[in-house]
Amino acid sequence: MHYLTSNREEAFRLAARNELDVPVSLQEDMALWQHILPGDADISGINLFGSPSFLSVLYVKGRFDDVAFPLEGSIDKADWQDYAESIKNLKANYAQHLPRHYDFLTDLPNEAARKLLGVV
After folding, report:
1. 38 Cβ neighbours under 8 A, 6+ residues apart
2. What is the rounded CA–CA span in Å between residue 111 and residue 95?
3. Is the model's pLDDT at 113 over the cut of 80?
């Protein structure tokens, strides 16, 4: 799906987008996702990524730019901004309490991990 929705113009991307066979299941999903958002029930078989990943790829590729969603106006913009600010504050608070990356790795109880880092 990532290659199919790519808007990049490198030869590899063009070939992947225009010359590879797209599985029927993906064609069906892409047609469905023009009307609804991807859901877990849409993704069959064993997949490394779930519906949020599919949604993210479609979103950043602009697939929803001209789509009006029924509940789009049900959340007040100020409420949404307040919520986004609270998430930003939570992340900042969590980040203050996390160890530095180096400290985290060197505190690992696994001696083999420390050897790899050269801190034994």
Report:
1. 29, 51, 54, 55, 58
2. 27
3. no
